[in-house]
Specification:
The complex is a heterodimer. By secondary structure, chain A is mainly α. Helix content of chain A is 75%, strand content 1%. Chain B is mostly helical. Chain B has a domain of 218 residues. Chain B is globular and about 70 Å long. The chains are: A mainly alpha, B mainly alpha.
Chain lengths: 415, 487
């Protein structure tokens, strides 16, 4: 996960070279965001976990509000002020649920005379003190609180708006990494409250399924490039949530790989869209068209991301989704079928998007378009390369994931 | 012979208080000798004096644990020392923040600074008093100074109105408080905190008279800290008072009242905690919810901060409801963190008001362009008040809520967190005005050197408490040990 964060942030900075409006403040806030995200993945302690989690939310408001862009289609208008306020309020209400649950866990943990502590290792060893009802009440708080951040249906509505309004690099980070914080948080809390979590897996896998289908169908109806990717993120996060909820070695491993793959993929999407938007100032699929003639490399990169998103073999999305599906068929076969239908819908909207925006007749307006600059290409290219690498040689990543998954699943093997 | 011996014993321990009173008279006297254009010297004298007295108290009283005088109605212990230093610091900062304001809007700087010094004296005595009547008299010294300060800008109608409202309602609250004291004295025959505590702990069931007395005392004090339903005066008084005084009301007088409440409740009423802790928990919940919801609707920034400070009182009351060592630590910590952040916010508003004469939320549009530093300071302080990490507000709230959760008040902590969310919304609206809304009026805003120094100090304080509260917590722990031995 730290690897993912590093890759996405680095490329995010590379593509935001053209931030000209108050650049100093922009990068200061951006680095705060980086600090927050790294902190979450690295903290061994629930308090610092929460501290950094909140820290990652703080700069978002200004980043989106000041440097973002509004969407205006005449009939459909979302101002960036609206989106940023919605995003922050949603995320903070999620963190309130998490906070309450953290306090409850912390207070309940110590056996008499023991010094309480926020360390994960301590809380996990203290789980004998949580009786089943306690776990049943407080796990959903963790689940919904973190699920908010992960875009869990029905708490996802902040995410497309937020992603669309954010400046390119922030969208990359946000969809690419921040949403994963939510999934990561769910995994962490499951290992603290395993029995309660096991009882909540069915609702969670159902929500994940709705995420997949709902996100994919919504994505089909969008005209704005970024909204398509925003809704497809929701759909993909659905796979992550389903994978985690299977409690199956392959399913969970697939979910984690999907987190990684989706992080890179979405970052690539937003980077390419950013490149296009910088030049055309339009993200409307109906108006764009034939971009491939002038922006060859950019198109190529977008197509790679698109194919990874619909799960073409050879790219990372395939491996991850395959693992999730195998896990699902072992546990909830019916939902597995729905998940595959979701992947099929993804193929429909993604291919249609590519066909419309990049191929077909070219509008005269786009005669003078140029391809991405060298720095932009290196940034986006390295993301695409990572996608390929995971797709062709997943063993390295799977080994990395497997060791973690086995220890994570230990408490569930009995149930 | 015997009596005089007792009265003068340990009198030297009150030296800091004597010095403050002396300083106040000195400032008022020097005022006559100074020509009009050099009145700033008064502020310098006052601040330097406060700094010297602060250092002197730390050195002089630092080693003296648990001394008392006048047969125990004043105690000089770590608890009162910590609060004394807090009050001296707050007083000095408020005086610093008001230099420009006084120069521009007020005619009597000597009286202004002198009365602030008297009110600091009142606060210090409140933290040290260990007996109900003494506490009452110290509280009145503070209140009277504040009545005058609120209406000190005499040619401003709003200020006069605020003063009248404040004095009438304040006198009413004092009467209730005093009535409560008399009932307690009538029932128990003593007014010292320890005496009340012993009487309550002596195994007798708590009598109805006692409960009525406690309720009256609680109501009187609730007025002073502006807890719902005794808060009605707050927005009007805050709006009408001169800006630095609004800040002072929001921070100083509340901190002092909490210093008193904390000592009173932990030494006297602790024994019957079962009787009142739920009442206070409900008051806390209502106070913060009411304060934050009302703040949503405000367009005047002073009123907005007034309501938000009602909300903050709610958080502090959470600590009183969950009274324990951890809770009282976190109350003091929260007072300090909240004081720094609130003072920073008010200083920015004062500076802004001084150069533009406006105080509505949408007048702040484009402040980030006009003066990025001011906008940054206001953002930091608002984030801290909302309890976002990296700033003091996060840590202090976290401590407070843990303490509440440990005392089985998780529901109350939950309500408090939802309230933080509400407050975040209206703070973000101010921030949106500063950073996102286009500029209406772009002149550069100038800040004087002492003001930027003050702001830098406050922001640094907020951040340092936010990331490294350890040493401060240790100091506070030594203080609360005195009032809550081993729980």
């Amino acid at each position: 996960m730290v690897l993912l964060t590093g890759i996405v942030f680095l490329t995010g900075i590379l593509v935001s070279k053209n931030v000209t409006h108050r650049p100093k403040d922009f990068f200061v806030l951006y680095l705060f965001l980086v600090a927050g995200v790294f902190g979450v993945f690295e903290s061994q302690d629930l308090f610092f976990f929460f501290f950094f989690y909140e820290l990652a939310v703080v700069p978002m408001y200004l980043l989106i509000g000041v440097w973002g862009s509004s969407t205006d289609f005449g009939t459909f208008f979302r101002s960036k002020e609206y989106s940023s306020m919605k995003l922050v309020l949603y995320l903070v209400s999620g963190s309130i649920l998490v906070w309450i649950a953290i306090l409850a866990v912390y207070v309940q943990a110590p056996t008499s005379g023991q010094e309480a502590s926020f360390l994960f290792s301590f809380l996990e060893s203290a789980k004998v003190n949580y009786d089943l009802n306690f776990q049943r009440v407080f796990f959903p708080m963790f689940m919904i609180g973190f699920g908010l951040l992960a875009g869990l249906w029905p708490f996802h509505t902040w995410s497309p708006d937020g992603h669309v309004s954010a400046p390119t690099s922030v969208s990359m980070v946000h969809a690419g990494v921040l949403m994963k914080l939510g999934a990561y948080g769910i995994i962490r809390s499951m290992s603290i409250l395993p029995e309660g979590a096991a009882d909540w897996m069915l609702p969670m896998v159902l929500m994940g399924t709705i995420n997949v289908i709902y996100g994919a169908i919504s994505a089909m109806g969008q005209r704005d490039l970024k909204y398509v990717v925003g809704y497809s993120s929701i759909s993909h996060m659905g796979y992550v949530i389903m994978g985690i909820a299977t409690l199956d070695t392959l399913g969970v491993g697939g979910a984690i790989l999907q987190m990684f793959s989706h992080g890179i993929m979405t970052a690539l999407f937003f980077a390419v869209i950013g490149i296009i938007y910088d030049r055309t100032h339009i993200r409307d699929i109906g108006v764009l068209g034939g971009l491939a003639k002038r922006m060859k490399l950019t198109t190529f990169l977008f197509v790679i991301a698109g194919l990874a998103s619909l799960g073409l073999p050879g790219l990372s999305g395939f491996i991850a989704e395959l693992l999730v599906f195998i896990g699902l068929f072992r546990t909830y076969p019916l939902l597995g079928i729905l998940g595959i239908i979701g992947a099929a819908i993804t193929a429909i909207y993604m291919l249609r998007l590519i066909a419309k925006a990049f191929f077909g007749p070219m509008d005269e307006r786009w005669e003078k378009l140029t391809d991405g600059t060298r720095i932009e290409n290196i940034a986006a290219g390295s993301l695409a390369f990572t996608l390929l690498l995971v797709g062709v040689y997943p063993t390295y990543f799977l080994n990395l994931i497997d060791s973690g998954v086995v220890t994570f699943l230990k408490p569930f093997s009995g149930t | 012979m015997y009596a005089t011996d007792n009265l003068t014993a340990n009198l030297h321990l009150l030296l800091p208080e004597f010095l403050i009173a002396g300083l106040a008279f000195l400032v008022i006297t020097i005022d006559f000798l100074l020509p009009r254009e050099r009145k700033n010297v008064l502020a310098v004298i006052a601040v330097l004096g406060l700094a010297i007295i602060g250092i002197f108290s730390i050195i002089y009283l630092g080693g003296k644990e648990n001394a008392s005088l006048y047969e125990g109605i004043f105690v000089i212990d770590r608890y009162s020392l910590v609060f004394k230093v807090i009050f001296l610091g707050m007083g000095a900062l408020v005086i610093l923040a008001s230099i420009d304001f006084v120069k521009k809007h007020l005619h009597h700087p000597g009286e202004y600074y002198g009365i602030i010094l008297f009110s600091i004296l009142g606060m210090m005595l409140m933290a040290a008093s260990n007996e109900l009547l003494t506490a009452y008299i110290s509280l009145e010294l503070l209140s009277f100074s504040l009545y005058i300060l609120v209406s000190i800008s005499r040619d401003n109608q709003k200020s006069d109105e605020a003063g009248v409202k404040y004095i009438i309602l304040g006198a009413f609250a004092s009467a209730i408080l005093l009535y409560g004291v008399s009932i307690i004295y009538g029932t128990l025959g003593t007014t010292t905190f320890e005496g009340i505590g012993q009487a309550m702990g002596s195994g007798l069931s708590v009598s109805p008279h006692l409960l009525v007395g406690m309720a009256f005392i609680l109501s009187g004090l609730a007025f002073k800290i502006a807890a719902v339903p005794f808060h009605m005066w707050t927005p009007d008084v805050y709006e009408g008072a001169p800006l630095p005084i609004t800040a002072y009301l929001a921070i100083g007088s509340k901190a002092a009242a909490f210093a008193l409440i904390l000592r009173l409740f932990s030494t006297s009423f602790m024994q019957s905690i079962e009787e009142w802790h739920l009442v206070i928990a409900v008051i806390a919940a209502v106070t913060m919810t009411f304060g934050n919801l009302s703040a949503l609707a405000q367009s005047n920034i002073k009123r907005l901060l007034a309501y938000s400070s009602i909300g903050q009182v709610g958080y502090l009351l959470v600590g009183i409801a969950a009274l324990s060592t951890a809770a009282s630590n976190s109350i003091i910590l929260h007072i300090i963190g909240y004081g720094l952040a609130n003072l920073a916010a008010f200083s920015v508003i004062t500076i802004f008001y001084n150069s533009t004469g406006k105080e509505n939320v949408n007048d702040f549009a484009g402040l980030a362009k006009r003066n990025p530093f001011l906008a940054m300071v206001l953002t930091v302080s608002l984030f801290s008040l909302a309890g976002l990490p990296f700033f003091a507000g996060f840590i202090t709230k976290f401590y407070l809520f843990i303490a509440a959760a440990k005392e089985d008040l998780l529901w109350l902590a939950g309500i408090a967190m939802v309230n933080s969310l509400i407050s975040l919304y209206y703070y973000l609206i101010i921030i949106k005005q500063m950073y996102i809304t286009p500029v209406k009026d772009d002149g550069d805003l100038k800040i004087s050197a002492h003001n930027s120094g003050l702001l830098i100090f406050l922001v640094l304080g907020t951040i340092i408490i936010g990331i490294y509260p350890g040493p401060l917590v240790d100091i506070i722990e030594t203080a609360t040990k005195v009032i809550l031995p081993a729980t």
